[in-house]
Amino acid sequence: MEREVDVIVIGGGPVGENAADRARAAGLEVVLVERELVGGECSYWACIPSKTLLRSAAALRAAQRVDGAKQAVTGRLDVPAVLARRDYWVSDWSDQGGADWLESIGIGLERGHGRLDGVRRVVVERTGGGEVAYRARHAVIVATGTDPVVPRIDGLAEAAPWTSREATSVTEPPARLVVIGGGVTGVEMATAFAGFGTEVTVLARSGLLSTMEPFAGEAVAKGLRELGASVRLDAAVERVERTASGEVVVTLAGGETVTADEVLIATGRRPRSERLGLETVGLEPGGWVSVDDTMLATGAAGNDSQPWLYAAGDLNHRALLTHQGKYQARAVGDLVAARALGTPEQTSPWGAHVATADHSAVPQVVFAEPEAVSVGLTAAEAERDGREVRVADVSFSSVSGAGILADGYEGQARLVVDTERGTVVGATFVGQDVAELLQSATIAIVGEVPIDRLWHAVPAFPTMSEVWLRLLEALGRRTAADASAPADSEASDADDSGARSDDAEAAA
Ligand SMILES: Cc1cc2nc3c(=O)[nH]c(=O)nc-3n(C[C@H](O)[C@H](O)[C@H](O)COP(=O)(O)OP(=O)(O)OC[C@H]3O[C@@H](n4cnc5c(N)ncnc54)[C@H](O)[C@@H]3O)c2cc1C
Ligand SMILES: NC(=O)c1ccc[n+]([C@@H]2O[C@H](COP(=O)([O-])OP(=O)(O)OC[C@H]3O[C@@H](n4cnc5c(N)ncnc54)[C@H](O)[C@@H]3O)[C@@H](O)[C@H]2O)c1
């Protein structure tokens, strides 16, 4: 027999939980299907444990950079205490809190593996055994996340490599760790283990953090080396072998070897969609589920006549970040409810039921040493996008708040400005504690705040935010003499060529 509910959500990670919550808040009957832990990868094996593993050493380093405090901090990192703090934050891998929360807001939890079985139908292979079939009156939202990619490298799979799960749930840090991959997971885990005293080698096939401005990866490579890690750029791994004594030997192109106790693979993610029944609704099993800005799955059977299948979070491959997935979840949960209740849809750009920011304003914080954070476009991306851009680069050495935060503060900031529109389209900050600067840049981009208006957003002295003033100064501010000069002398200003006249102050 089939049970009928309004909405079925498959996958109870941060994204599925939020989508279910929004649909339920509008009064719909919702069932959420989860086969492991309510809270998903983020809560138990990704964001939360990785950040707690990083935080204690970062706090220690911060204290060591302030004269007066550093004399008081003479001990070493207490690794068992760090791991215990991690255990607290992951609730010892119990999802009772998440399950209780679902119950408290009236969402049904179905524990088991969910798969689509034709239009609006979901079959759950229950964790305790047996199957149950559901029919959705209004929508099915799939939010099943991703698994790590294990690259095809000779001997790697047989060498029992670590993935992010083993790294984030570590109970005894190894003496030596090789990290394959120079993306976000690779550098964060390398930073965490270097902080524990593990001898870390990072093998990156190009530079580090290659999706960010180049200076971000360069600063993080320098920071990792200062923590004692070895960072090998342009390194191609040819073979991995687990020896009889339990060591891992990684052979690079050219024959050089690196020996360690564990090898961590941090080479990207693949969609968890192999046993999701996608083929029963005309989609490709094992692939990413493409969606439009409302998260409606492109090409799914029945979606054209009456929208019903949506995909949110990592699974749709728009932005593999918890906060962005939750943003999509709020949009789709509200849209599904609006469609069910027949209330107005808000699907034009920046409406409540679309994830417009995914295209132009995705913030990301890399919790490395130093922190590297970015939002929007890099200068190269903006140029590829056909925009006239100006770039402002400043060092945090010109910011009093940074010098007070840490002795000898090192950091860098970049704004990318679209000169035609006179607005910020990208920002990158690198340095200690820059994470909290990111939201100001995100607001400037999403709000399309004109540069000349940003001069009126006065950063308090002496805070890190004063970097904004330095960035505006680097973009330039006309003097009274400039204002009275003939128009052609203004136009001769070196990088002013792309600026509209009404944006002259912004671009000058
Ligand atoms: C090491 C690491 C650190 C990270 N740190 C950050 C960070 O600091 N900040 C950040 O924003 N992002 C971070 N991310 C990315 C973040 O973890 C993901 O973007 C986020 O978890 C995606 O959420 P999701 O709900 O889409 O998927 P998931 O969190 O993967 O949740 C999907 C859920 O679906 C369940 N599921 C899957 N298939 C089925 C099925 N067929 N039936 C029933 N249930 C199913 C799974 O068990 C899981 O609980 C990190 C990732 C990694 C690997
Ligand atoms: N702080 C955060 O927000 C945070 C932290 C961790 C992960 N995440 C998210 O999770 C996702 C996955 O992160 P990730 O670091 O696993 O993936 P990624 O795609 O960000 O980086 C993978 C890296 O591995 C490299 N690579 C791929 N195959 C390789 C090979 N055979 N040999 C050597 N290098 C290889 C790639 O060139 C790339 O640099 C990302 O999208 C990221 O945004 C976010």
Describe the model:
With 508 residues, this protein is of the alpha/beta class. The chain has three domains: 2-39 and 95-147 and 271-347, FAD/NAD(P)-binding domain; 157-267, FAD/NAD(P)-binding domain (3-Layer(bba) Sandwich); 370-507, Enolase-like, domain 1, CATH 3.30.390.30. The protein contains 18 helices and 20 strands. The strands form five sheets. The protein has a five-stranded mixed β-barrel with strand order 1-2-3-4-5. It has a five-stranded antiparallel β-sheet with strand order 16-17-20-19-18, with helices on both faces. Strand 1 (2-10), helix 1 and strand 2 form a beta-alpha-beta unit. It starts with a strand and ends with a helix. Mean pLDDT is 95; it is low at 489-508. Nicotinamide-adenine-dinucleotide binds next to helix 7 and strand 16. It comes from Agromyces cerinus subsp. cerinus.
